[in-house]
Amino acid sequence: GAVLIVVALPAAWYFFPRKPYDVGVQLARSGKRVEALAVWEKACDGGDVDSCARAAILRVSHGEVDAGRALLQKAKATNPKHVWVLLLEGSFLELDGKPADAKVLYEEAERLHPTSGLPATSLAKLALAANDLPEAERCAERALAAEPSLGSAHAMRGRVLVATSSLDEAVSSYLEAVELDGMGAVDWVLLADVMEKFDAKKIDILVC
Q1: What DSSP designation does 13 have?
Q2: Staple 119 to which of 33, 49, 109, 136, CB 3.0 to 4.6 Å?
Q3: Who contacts 44 (Cβ-Cβ below 8 Å, separation ≥6)?
Q4: pTM score, two decimals?
Q5: Are 126 and 91 in contact (CB under 8 A)?
Q6: Helix or strand or coil: residue 183?
Q7: How far from chain centre, in Å, is Cα 160?
Q8: CB atoms within 10 A of CB 130
């Protein structure tokens, strides 16, 4: 993000230029997803794997799965073992009905990137889908241990807590996730509904 320089400089010098990826994040968080996508896809063409990943996720969320796969291939050509490349490959395998193959990639990502909580978060999601709650709990805890400031890890812990009927703790986890990730207004509405009704289906929508 932007870095403030606290010295007597002209106003135009107060901030360092931001990376395109960060610009896209700010646009997306302010609801300007079309503009964010344009920024990320341009950066992806320049070899920015993180931007490729965010663009691919956005494309898939709009139902444009083939476009998402194409962005993944661009990222893979740049860095095939990048954490986001492995996770996206796993996600597409899940979409193709191959959770066992996805698990292999998530485990590889966790092994290669021990300071990222994302792989264990993905493993927790797989365990939940298989109704293996003890494993889901272990994976969620590993995700938080690896990266305590990762909003999606707190959100996943919330999903696990809902599945184990620990509803008050689940709400706390979701609030932490929202605070860390700065989710948009729709997510706030969903969270309020979850807090009122403890509706697990709406919780799934929140963290998908």
Answers
A1: G
A2: 109
A3: 51, 52, 55, 71, 74, 75
A4: 0.76
A5: no
A6: coil
A7: 17
A8: 12
